[in-house]
Write a structure and sequence with these properties.
Order of helices and strands: HH
Strand content: under 5%
Number of strands: 0
Shape: rod-shaped
Structural class: mainly alpha
Largest sheet: none
Number of domains: 1
Radius of gyration: 18 Å
Length: 44
């Protein structure tokens, strides 16, 4: 296997994981923000 292809796969997977973590962080921050505005039982 050529190093270029492996490096491309690593970059592709790295970008996918980074994007997933970024979206998860945004959703968690949005949930925490709405949790402060709503009653606590609704934030669960």
């Amino acid at each position: 296997p050529d190093p270029g292809g492996v490096r491309h796969d690593i970059a592709l997977w790295g970008g996918t994981v980074f994007a997933f973590l970024l979206i998860a962080a945004v959703l968690r921050a949005r949930a925490n923000f709405t949790g402060t505005m709503l009653p606590r039982e609704d934030a669960l």
